[in-house]
Design brief:
The protein has helices spanning 10-22, 25-32, 36-50, 66-93, 106-120, 132-140, 201-210, 226-234, 277-292; strands at 55-57, 62-64, 100-104, 124-129, 146-149, 158-166, 168-171, 182-184, 192-194, 218-221, 239-242, 251-257, 260-261, 263-270. Strands 7, 8, 9, 10, 11, 12 and 13 form a seven-stranded mixed sheet that branches. Strands 4-3-5-14-6 form a five-stranded mixed sheet, sandwiched between helices. It has three domains: 10-88, Winged helix-like DNA-binding domain superfamily/Winged helix DNA-binding domain (Arc Repressor Mutant, subunit A, Orthogonal Bundle), CATH 1.10.10.10; 97-163 and 266-292, Periplasmic binding protein-like II (D-Maltodextrin-Binding Protein, domain 2), CATH 3.40.190.10; 168-261, D-Maltodextrin-Binding Protein, domain 2, CATH 3.40.190.10. A hairpin with a 2-residue loop joins β12 (251-257) and β13 (260-261). It starts with 9 loop residues before the first helix and ends in a 5-residue tail after the last helix. The protein is of the alpha/beta class. The chain is globular. Belongs to the LysR transcriptional regulatory family.
């Protein structure tokens, strides 16, 4: 049975992850700049300490055993948390203003985080960019301090609804729908639609809005990037639905469903036991206030 005095050190656990990712002790040793025998010895000692086999040999190297596969996400979470503790200690001992890392989808960096920092000098100095469905994992794993996301946060996190962003339909200037001030889902019957791939909060909102006409539209492209979605729309490949402002010569029109404006909620979330939870709470409040004062098209 393990106890606090018999736990593997983080360095060895990090080396375990490198071996898993490399698929070979020899390649992992080269990446870590240590000798192959030394790394093999570390892995053998780790297996002995845990009392289980972590790797199976293959013709090309090694692969994690069932126990090893179970250990991988636990080790990643542990290392992320350790890095979070290290950042906290460095900031506290330096007696400097606390700086934060935010986890969010790519479009949220461009549409929310970047302009918020530019206009307010908010203490966000790094980001973890990921799909909306994985954003909160970065906060739970402590690789990020704050999540700003378009999907509702899990109940275990402290959170705040900071904004509801209007969704737009982007078309080329010569498109017949460009003459309308707003475009309803019913106006998109028989249209070719370009929308972000599944896994984003925007996609969930758009899917709900298009539900009444779901059998009368065609999804022609599902990129993971808003920039690419609008680039495709600019070529005439289809009509783009997004929250980011129009690019590449497109014009944006308000998107409605059943004549009600379609809005995408944006949330901020953080761990309640974060060492700087009070500052994160204040930061979320500042983000909410800034969002409420933004000029919408």
């Amino acid at each position: 049975m393990l106890n606090a005095h018999n736990l593997p050190d983080l360095r060895v656990l990090a080396h375990f992850l490198t071996v898993v990712e490399a698929g070979s002790v020899t390649r992992a040793a080269s990446m870590l700049r240590i000798t192959q025998p030394a790394l093999s010895r570390q892995m053998q000692q780790l297996e002995q300490r845990l009392g289980t086999r972590l790797f199976d040999r293959t013709t090309t190297g090694v692969r994690p055993s069932s126990a090893g596969l179970t250990l991988v996400p636990l080790v990643r979470s542990l290392i992320d948390r350790a890095e979070g503790v290290q950042r906290a200690v460095e900031q506290l001992t330096a007696d400097a203003p606390v700086r934060f890392r935010a986890a969010c989808p790519e479009a949220t960096v461009r549409g929310v985080i970047a302009p918020f920092v530019a206009e307010t000098s908010a203490p966000i100095t790094g980001t973890e960019i990921d799909l909306a469905v994985r954003v909160y994992d970065h906060v739970i794993g402590r690789s990020a301090d704050l999540a700003v996301n378009t999907l509702p946060p899990p109940l275990g996190l402290e959170s705040e609804l900071i904004d509801s962003a209007p969704v737009q339909v982007h078309v080329t200037p010569g498109h017949p729908l460009a003459e309308l001030e707003s475009i309803d889902a019913s106006d998109l019957v028989d249209a070719s639609i370009i929308v972000l791939a599944s896994g984003s909060g925007l996609r969930q909102v758009v899917d709900r809005a298009l539900w009444p006409v779901r059998d009368r539209i065609t999804i022609v492209a599902e990129p993971s990037s808003s920039d690419l979605a609008m680039a495709l729309a600019s070529t005439g490949a289809g009509i783009c639905i997004d929250v980011v402002g129009p690019q590449f010569g497109l014009v944006g029109r308000t998107f409605t469903s059943d004549r009600q404006r379609v809005m995408m909620p944006i949330y901020a979330a953080w761990e309640a036991d974060h060492f700087a939870a009070d500052q994160l709470r204040s930061l979320a409040g500042a983000l909410t206030a800034w969002s409420s004062g933004r000029v919408r098209d």
